[in-house]
Amino acid sequence: MPSLTRTEAQQRAAAIRVTRMAIRLDLDQGSEHFGSRTEIHFDATGTETFVELRAIAVARLELNGAPLDPDEIQDGRLALRALAPHNVLHVEATMAYSHDGQGLHRSIDPADGEAYVYGHLFLDAAPSVFACFDQPDLKAPYEVWVRAPAHWRVLGNGAATRAADGSWHLAPTAPLATYFVTVCAGPWASVEREHDGIRLGVHARASLRGPLERQAGELLSVTAACFDYYHDVFGIRYPFGDYHQVFCPEFNAGAMENPGCVTIRDAFLFRGAATHDELLTRTNTIAHELAHMWFGNLVTMTWWDDLWLNESFAEYLAHRACVAVTDFTDAWVDSTMARKLWGHTAERSPSNHPVAGTPALDAQAALNNFDGISYAKGSAVLRQLITHIGDEAFVAGVRAYLHRHRFGNGDLADFLHTMEAASGLALGDWSSAWLQSPGIDSLHVHQDTGRVTRIPPAGYPKVSRPHTFDVAGFTGGREVFRVGGTLERSTRKWPELLTAERAEIVLPNASDLTWAVSGLDPQTLRALPEGLAEIPDPQARAVAWLALIDGMHEGRVDPRLVLRAARSAWPRERNSSILNRVGTHLVGRLIPLFLPPPEQGGAEALMADAAQRIYRDPCLLYTSDAADE
């Protein structure tokens, strides 16, 4: 099946409007196939278009009462001709379950032999479940009926009720993009409660009932707190009815933001002890998917080149919510160690791209942009936008954007328009520099001269981004100065640096407020291996580790110096995100890729000795809150 191109999507969106989707699924036909009946109501301004369908067999095709030939389906597309102003398409087909996590996935729980089915229709898998016009800007209300084995429960985007004949009805939804539709069916274990008029539920395989019930209180409390926070920030109540989170087996991503029925990999339902950063990651995932109910679901990107309007916002808002309303007030430290490390790596790759406006000539090409740039860099750029226009204007612009395009679609121009109106500032140049230009700058501080310097990325020397950030100095475990400002040119003198106490360690971007590599001066590099652990601020320690790793990847820092820091500082680290991410990177990347083979054994022994020192420490950073008894 050819991937839908942007040009085709634009032409089809101009030609038709989908007004109703009615879907009937029969999940009681065995282990390989299921029945699918689709009724599509749509208006047309032209006489011809096409619909997507990937079926095993087609029993009925009918447009406005006239039969169509199933042999006309070519490469997963069916041409629709002689359209009327108002049209109804009926499709009855046999479809295949998937076993790769896409489409309608069916798996068997080895613990008890029970089967589970869930829909994961991202990015273009919807036609393998039902006939549809599969693009993000042809949204429509969905009503779904499901037949399933008698002992199964069915969940989906609309509130589920069971009929007298045992079938399930999912209530009509607000307008949804095709890739948000899901059905989750099986003998789920469930815990539910109501919060602020919203029915909340968490669900998992029956064999995981114990872990689910032990952790449900935390899962639902985090969800409720984030609901309250987003209602306050956005000024728009959650518009999709019930809110279920289904922990799915064999899920091929972290989670998926289906309105009303989020699917999450069930590895997040911990069977044993979990570290602080594992629990933080799960909490952040819950906050991330809930943020998508507004950014992505209520307002959906028009086409995949504005993926950032989904992912950058969910990334930023989730960390903001974690700090504001959960116990994980160190979420931005984890962002530095986990997300920015990922994003900086993407910036160094040949496939780097701008945050927004990356050409996605077809849907499949958009998959290349689900990376640390669309997520972590986009989040950092939003933080810079806030420093530029102020948080009050940012929130006002977000509210205006969501109100203006609710249940519809938006793009970069739409977002900038509302932000300019809210702030009173022209943002064209800012957007060009930050959103529409690739690459990552490096920031350098020269305390002796009081100068801060920005070096543009190789290959993009003319890109000029304003950076608002701070610089901190540390000596002997004390923070001796912290100054901040905005660097709008390639270099600028900050007089506060000259009057500040001389510091052994000087960290540009110490609070990690901007998207840049922190360049380290020679004195700082000499002092870091022994002094890093003494830095009192965990956010600054994370920035220091990221600077060392960035410098190593760019050939400016000897990997042996990073190992020296690991030997001295890593065993004394008390932030779980730093501890775990640094250890993983050094063992998985530094030793095998940056050291000659004769030195790798000694480096592994060094890390093993450091790990033993951590293990023997009575202040282990593990919790039994998620552990099975």
Describe the structure.
This protein is α+β, with helices and mostly antiparallel strands and 629 residues long. It contains 15 helices and 30 strands. It has an eight-stranded mixed sheet. Strands 15-16-17-19-18 form a five-stranded mixed sheet. A four-stranded antiparallel sheet has the order 8-9-14-11, with no helix packed on it. Strand 16 (198-204), helix 2 (209-234) and strand 17 (243-248) form a beta-alpha-beta unit. Helix 2 crosses helix 3 (276-291), helix 3 (276-291) packs across helix 4 and helix 6 packs across helix 7. It is globular and about 80 Å long. Residues 620-629 have low confidence and may be disordered.
Summarize the structure.
With about 625 residues, the chain is of the alpha+beta class.
Which terms summarize this structure?
single chain; 629 residues; alpha+beta; 8-stranded mixed sheet; 5-stranded mixed sheet; disordered C terminus
Straight-line distance between termini: 49 Å
As residue ranges, the low-confidence spans are 620-629
Nearest-integer average pLDDT: 96
Please report the number of helical segments: 15
Please outline the major beta sheet. Answer: 8 strands, mixed
Output the strand order for the largest sheet.
Answer: 5-4-7-2-1-10-13-12
The amount of beta strand, in percent, is 25-35%
From the spread of the alpha carbons, the general shape counts as: globular
Extended strand count: 30
Helical amount among residues, as a percent range?
A: 25-40%
Radius of gyration, in Å, reads 26 Å
Q: Structural class of the helix and strand makeup?
A: alpha+beta
